[in-house]
């Protein structure tokens, strides 16, 4: 589907008969829950185990409180940041997530189009239902990165990376926290099974174009024996900078840099891998302290508000990756939904720069933060806040 | 409407047929929720974003625990305090809030009358639905302050300030935390839109007497480029002392004083501007430590109990501003409701002085306080407290 | 009603047709809630203001965790303690609470009888619906103390104390935290009004035997100008030791001892006076540290479990006072209910001595305690504890 | 019933008509709740008093957060550990719990069979509804330990231990935290009464083969005067190593070792004895620090996840004991259910080793842990996690 046709549909989507797009990410999530079948919604929404880390990812951002400054001229803001030497219009990027055609028939192409309209870099998953070259065609203007899962069959991985490089993707994001998939109990409860989907990487890995795989079978295609040496090899053989995604400790951040990583992403895979690992916001400071002066640090996990973005940058991140909310936007309204979700975050971030008295994102620092012992109060003191 | 007529109605309101006024602020809030349409109630009740700060404002006062002293002669209490050299009968003041005619047809005039009867200073909002001169006429005996939003058209602001000064208002409260309005999601959910309202300041700012504006349009009239220099200029050109409202850090408090502020108000705008900023009670100590020996410090945000007032004064504030509860009083019973809400707080404050063993408000200090790690328990241990 | 008749009824109460008495204090509270009218239940159950302190009293005991010791011979326990040089069979005493005829027609006489059977000292309230002499007659074998409110008309107080002394009461407990009654909002909500009740002290204070008073009127009879000098005077003129009830700080404990107090009770009046004051369990350590080597320290507030009693003694209290649970016992089954409630606590305390490995109550110390940052979990991690 | 017959039934249980076994422990608990009568379920599920410790046991594991390491070759894991010099295939053992015929007609024999199939050591309770020799016959290949309650009639205890030793049980676990049974209020509420059950130990203790006993009567058979000397005596007279189960302090751990214990189990008896004692996870570190270099330390209480097992080993435990979940497995599907519950834990543990980057259980240490002030968030910030 070309971009014209998509634009046509978007236009129809915004005719008066259509309900307007939500104005908050929570409403996008609610609408997505209504539209998707429970299995698919649960696959995206869920985390590993008891979902302690899933919830803590969000709570940890909320535990950080802001110390805003006043009477700064904030009539002009600069939300831009840099990553790998490139200027980004704003620090909100699309995290790599799998199988976008589960959420919308246009899949990753719609995501990429929406991201491009919002000037948001897009990180395409190895488990995408579109090829890197298709994404490049769908969103030629977008900054594109390619997320790498290393298959046991290294040829498959190599071919995908080469296609990404040839298609103008500008960095590889090596995911290091999935030797095996985490145990996602929502999927067990809903009985979620992947429907028949064209997943180019998997077709290549199993050597059959119409292989229908379950998550267990997919997991078995991945290489659980990966080590830092494999990172070094990837760095050595790739023309693209390699970013290590999934670091939660200073030790691993140091190791990644020593092995040639161009940047690191502090991430616990959205709470989907090992339940009970620390929240991303709690791991970020030690990583920034260890390697922040040498390389760029990104973070993902629980970013749901413009103020979360601001807090991440104040802690030293260059940018953030956003996963589930983008999927909710995609499920609700395709490319237009993705764009809207991103714009909501961008606008909130822009407003929070103004209200924090730090008009330039690059000037954010820890002086605007305060760590609180207290998470958000569940309720007001008596009969609700009044 | 003259004060006589209003008194007449108040009398009618207290005839046996009328339900008696509530005895707690929580009940006022509940009644107001019933009486106001959901959009208006939400506009007043809501905060920015996820309302973390809105709730934390209340919770932070509750986290402070009291260490009361016994066997002090408390048969006579002195609730009085001073502000800008003036004696106040008690430390409970009416915070500036917008558009009182949304809550009651008599609007700010009723608020002012109720405040005057409770001997509570009133801070009139720039976004009032009455002129400063009308308020002076409605409540000539009240201590009146004027809250200043700086319009891009400085002439409008100047004219309002001059009218306030000429009408016997005794201080200007420059709000410094609204370069833009915060994002209040309750309004998005309810679809709240300002009805047609006469707002003298806005009419002047747009040059049309019957302009109907939405919050976005109003926000665009404000000057987001305001800096400390503008404060200096206001201080230089105004005959009235200028109080800076919206300070949350020691740094800004110092800067405000250096720029000529006569006092500061520790405030996060009732949690309506930037969600996630620290609670007012959490910011107050560092501001008092920084400038409390040089100028008067006020505080607002989450004050719902006489003990909250006591805690604020014990932390070094001279007085507190109360916003939403006054609006609930206004919505429920006009001037009589405002008076009642204020008297409930005053009486609770007076009683808490007695029960704390500190009969004179001016003797309050941190020795009566203890910071607890524990907010109020949501429930008793088992089946509720017994 | 003589003790024989009461015993007769108790026997009837325990015939098979009667439902058996509850086995937990929570069930007593639940039954009392069913039996009493909502106003009376609320009067007893409620606290001041938002009931933060009411709930925190219970939560604070729960925040203390136990470090039990094993393989101690606990086949024989000694629950006894001493107070004012007297041996008590166990440390659980009946707190002074008002108007027992609200809970049961036999009023304080039933309470005293139940307490006597459980070998629990009883502290009779000034606001009792029975005279000290009647209580002495109803429970001659019980250890009896008399709680003193000082009326403006000192003659009334003096006469009551003299009657108590003459009736074999062995100590006066001067309540120091009620210059005025706290604001109990449950009573405002339920519209609770005291029914016609014979209250000997009040009849004397107003000089009319059938005066029907409300709480406000009663409050006005009390002397809010009481100071440490009045304590000194009471100590000087009374033949009985004077215990100061209502101390929450080391400073006041020191002052009480300096003024001649024979002991102090750490208490916040069951959370009924000033909401937001620290929990009794949180105040106890500093009081024990200040005066525990010189005088006996008691504590009340939130004691609902035998382990709470153990924790109180481990923190240095000689004994505890129990209020509301005794009233629930009284409401449910008169003297038998009181006895049962007390025995449940005594038995739990006895068992907790065994399970803590400290068979003698007098050997309890802080080594069995650990302060936890974590109150009781509201729920298990997922679908409840399993 | 021989093993063949049992296998036959298991096969029938796994025919397609049968519902499949649950995939999570929470579901096992839910199914067990449905299948067992409320009294029996409550007897197993409940704890002492207000169940603070019961819930805290689970919460305390959740308060520990993980710091996982990446890019370690985890394609092969080694879950094995050692205990008393013996290699265990994995660290998940079956805790001693009473009366398995309450849960399933096959009782402990089914438990033992399921444990054996999962290569899990089994600790048989003194209060088992099967003799040690029967268990040896039912699960000859299993590692078997015998839990010892010391009866007042020491001959009974001695005979049981000798039977255990003769039947190939390889260690005695002396339970030291039950001089008396804790007060389990769920049983009081449900009116739980033990049905007629053949309990060989009790029959021996009372000298009647068909004695029907209640928990109180059973408690009275136990010796509450037990001391460390009795441990020394047991150590001296037994050919088997003696493990002390129920230690919660460094002091008692030291004392146990000094008295000849071969190992200790940090345990609060699943929160069933003294409510308010510290969580097992909170007590473990000080015990490991005190004696961990000299003897093996086990832990039980609140282990519900493979990550809880990993955390226990990271804190220095050699293995963990699992109680209630095994009973749920037994209640739901006999031996097959026990096996399944254990395998779920083993598989989760194995996966968590991989995802933590520590492929060998013996390499776990505190560097993978972080103590958090924050338990699991009850909810996401707004309308649930999204």
Automatic annotation (TrEMBL), chains A, B, C, D:
Q: A single GO molecular function, which one?
A: oxidoreductase activity
InterPro entries xrefs = Aldolase_TIM, Alpha-hydoxy_acid_DH_FMN, FMN-dep_DH, FMN_HAD, FMN_hydac_DH_AS
Q: Which stretches make up the FMN hydroxy acid dehydrogenase domain?
A: 17-374
Q: Which domain of life is it from?
A: Bacteria
Q: Where is the composition biased (Basic and acidic residues)?
A: 1-10
Q: Where is this region: Disordered?
A: 1-21
Q: Which SUPFAM superfamilies match?
A: FMN-linked oxidoreductases (SSF51395)
The active site is formed by: 269
Keyword Oxidoreductase in the entry? The reply is yes
**GO CC aspect terms:** cytoplasm
Cofactor or coenzyme needed? FMN
| Binding annotation for FMN | 96-98, 125, 147, 175, 245, 267, 300-304, 323-324
Binding of glyoxylate, residues: 43, 149, 184, 269, 272
Q: Work out whether the entry's keyword set contains Repeat.
A: no
Q: Which UniProt keywords apply?
A: Flavoprotein, FMN, Oxidoreductase
Entry's PANTHER family? 2-HYDROXYACID OXIDASE 1, S -2-HYDROXY-ACID OXIDASE-RELATED
Belongs to which family? Belongs to the FMN-dependent alpha-hydroxy acid dehydrogenase family.
Name it: 4-hydroxymandelate oxidase
